[in-house]
Design a protein that fits this description.
about 160 residues, alpha+beta
Length: about 160
């Protein structure tokens, strides 16, 4: 079980969320030699949810249009995610005192985006919404779920 979050009161939630975002951004830069396009942290008194959005590199964009290229990009990023996840969790815990538990990565080749989501909870639910908004609702393109399994799981779409 994770230790209580250091975000119980509203006054400290923002600074903790900023420290977590900076720690993850620095880690991603060290691993991939590029910074995320954005890092979003949603903090409540009980949980943090961190989402990183990265853009494909020019090489990944070229590879994505080649036969089998999207699969290679997907395998590469899932491999990096799986092999660096524990080090990222340790880095964030040592830097900020926050323990991330569950996480997943999703590669969206049509938009050239890499989405990584972490939470202090034991599972992640990610619903990917469609582009068009029909009159009666929003289409759901995919639903990803991962149980943390003591913080060592990774989900795939």
């Amino acid at each position: 079980m994770n230790a209580p979050l250091p975000v119980r009161d509203r006054a400290t939630r923002g600074p903790v969320a900023r420290r977590v975002a900076r720690a993850i951004g620095r880690f991603e830069h060290a691993i991939l030699a590029r910074v995320p396009r954005s890092v979003t942290v949603v903090a409540t008194p009980d949980h943090l949810v961190v989402t990183l959005l990265e853009a494909f590199t020019p090489l990944e964009r070229q590879l994505s249009i080649a036969p089998g290229g999207c699969c290679r990009i997907d395998q590469f990023h899932h491999g990096v995610f799986a092999s660096s996840r524990e080090a990222l969790v340790d880095h964030v815990r040592e830097t900020t005192g926050v323990t991330l538990d569950a996480g997943l990565v999703h590669i969206d080749a049509p938009t050239g985006s890499i989405l990584k989501t972490f939470t202090t909870d034991s599972s992640v639910e990610l619903v990917l919404l469609g582009q068009a908004l029909p009159a009666l609702g929003v289409p759901v393109n995919a639903h990803l779920h991962v149980n943390g399994a003591a913080g060592r799981g990774a989900g795939r779409s």
